[in-house]
Automatic annotation (TrEMBL):
Lineage per the UniProt record: Eukaryota, Sar, Stramenopiles, Ochrophyta, Bacillariophyta
Region (Disordered): 1-22
Name assigned to this protein: Uncharacterized protein
Domain of life: Eukaryota
Length: 142
């Protein structure tokens, strides 16, 4: 559903609190989940490009949905939703010990705040999600 806030002003939330859903400029991209409730959360841009260019890119949009939805399209069990690079990484990391996976996960999570090209950030986040799945799977085996 599209809402044109210049014509249909929304300034009050469901509990009477003041809102400004368009704060931060246009287009405004928001996500909604259990943590954010009806107020939603604000998407944080990853590039210096226009929002429509950034989220118009299939990989960037998929990364956005996965990041804010706390999900992954790539399954380590079935390999469905995984690209060739992810499948190779799953193969490489699935032979590692839980300790090795935790070390690699900590290293990659520590790199997330660093400035890097958008495509590298997408790949970093994909690896983090794979490692989290591997860690959970190994934890279940113990």
């Amino acid at each position: 559903m599209d809402v044109n806030l210049s014509q249909e002003r929304i300034s009050e939330g469901p509990n009477g609190e003041q809102w400004n859903p368009g704060a931060g400029g246009w287009p405004t991209i928001r996500y909604f989940n259990k943590e954010t409730g009806l107020k939603g959360g604000t998407y944080v841009k990853k590039t210096n490009g226009a929002m429509c260019d950034e989220l118009g890119d299939d990989e960037m949009m998929t990364a956005y949905v996965e990041e804010y939805g706390n999900t992954s399209a790539c399954s380590i069990e079935t390999k469905q939703g995984c690209d060739e690079r992810e499948v190779a990484y799953i193969g490489k990391m699935s032979t590692k010990s839980l300790e090795d996976i935790e070390v690699q996960l900590k290293r990659l999570v520590g790199m997330e705040g660093n400035s890097m090209k958008p495509e590298l950030l997408v790949w970093l986040k994909k690896r983090v999600k794979i490692l989290k799945q591997l860690k959970a799977a190994q934890g279940e085996e113990l």
